[in-house]
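Risk register update: the risk of archive-format incompatibility is retired. Evidence:
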Amino acid sequence: MKKLIFLSLMMLLSLPLAAYAATVGGPPNQGLSIGLGVESVIDRDLKPKQFIAPVVAPIPIPTIGCNIKNMYRTMLQVGYGFFDFLEVYVKLGGQALQVKSFVEDQFGFPAGDIRAHVKYGFAYGGGLKAAYEFKDGPVRGLIIGAGAQYLRSHQRYRANFTDSLGIEESSTGNATFQEWQVGPYVGYRVKNFLPYMGVKYSDVRIKISGGEEGGTTKFKGEDVVGMFVGLTYNIIPQLMLNIEGEFFDQYGVNFNLIYKFK
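Archived output:
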């Protein structure tokens, strides 16, 4: 079993991924806990929300949405469970992402594409989670819970625009990322294992601004309802390993190692 856990950990850390998906992470822990999360989304679609034009735009403006191909986040989570069914926590760490967007001209014809690389920078957030576990009866081990959280980051980016003739231009500026998430789930505890699954509402928004001429473009998630499945394993009573995957609204994977203080 120890070899299996070690191999799973190495496989996760070797993936070309590392963080953006906001994980639920299983039921709450009573008392003080600290965790390290490595998270990633490899695909999410966004649609334009607002564009505030500069006097002269240095590059064409994306008008038909964009796609997140890689978003990476590594976060330290500190939580405190006031009861065995309610926990609040804060997250501190870093995040990086890549965005690809197709652009059109004023007549609606394809004009090229933009690839933006947002540098790794500070990210923070917080939330709470609650759950009720049935201790006896025919549904003993059944867990019903929910989690809610908010995440934010503000970083520099560099964007390269390639037009239909292959000519390239570049621009730099700032990118602000925000996500609000809430989701109920059900799980079933079997000895040291706790598999669970649920649905979530996830509102993701990105504001891109800057360049020498100014200008601001805002995007929001095209799909806001998704599904997640996860598994928590108690390595020892105080140490837990959690793996969680997300589907439909976005496609990603999360890895968390959590230590509970006695």
